[in-house]
Specification:
Elements: H1 3-20, H2 34-55, H3 61-76, H4 87-99, H5 104-118, H6 125-135, H7 137-147, H8 152-172, H9 174-181, H10 188-193, H11 198-202, H12 208-228, H13 231-234, H14 237-259, H15 271-282
Helix pairs in contact: 1-2, 1-4, 2-4, 2-5, 2-7, 3-5, 5-6, 5-7, 6-8, 7-8, 8-12, 8-14, 12-14, 14-15
Length: about 290
Amino acid sequence: MTQSTELRAAYGFCHQRVAAHYENFPVASWLLPRHLRGPVAAIYCFARTADDLADEDPRPVPERRADLEAMRAHILELESPEAESEPEWKALADACQRHALPVQPFSDLIDAFIQDLDQKRYATFGEVMEYCRRSANPVGRLLLHLYTNPSDEMLGHSDAICSALQLINFYQDLRQDLEENDRIYLPQEDMARYGVSETLLASGVTSLPLRNLMQFQYARADRLLRAGAPLGGMLGGRMGLEVRAIVNAGARVLWRLRQQDDVFARPRLRPRDKWIVLRQSLFPRRRHRA
């Protein structure tokens, strides 16, 4: 088997992992430039593996923490794809080598997932945003580095988009995070302000106070998403199209969340939603009715 064949198989493995995990937002989609789809899938595989260690692995916390630290050590020592035996690491080594990706974003991701092992509550929105800085923003920064040498302005827009998408994920996974991981990402200060106790949240009942709380959260995520949206116009070609699609998909999920009677229901974008997202992404200057 030649090296190129091995790399194709490694990237193929990463693409399969992407396809196996449903996302409302495009991940390594056909909208991207073809030569970037594999590297994006490799980055996603790294994040997915670390996230699964934090959320789905049944082993004791110390063992999972040790594995996450081992992932950090591995990425810091990553060299050539030939030196790697596992497909996800082979693909990631090739992506890092080919595109001179910075290491710090990968380390930040590990920090966030280690934090998930220990921290289950967030007192303020500032604490939540600090978590987003390490759990979501690194992915956007890595994608920018795949495409260009990003300016500070680009990085700022990317951070706003990624933090907004992370918040949206929190909002659509309220029930799952609480029931499966005893984790609440809603700021405790906001819950107190709107009169939503943990008992009320755990009841799974969409009360008026909870609805008001979530509408406040949705508006907050929407502002962040809009703040980052100019990035889609700053990037050219298919990369700009991908970013616009991600932003529009996030906005569409927020729209679905706002319309739902049950704040605990996880919305899925329907074919009509996806068509609207694509149309708005292809023709960003036009306004379309939902």
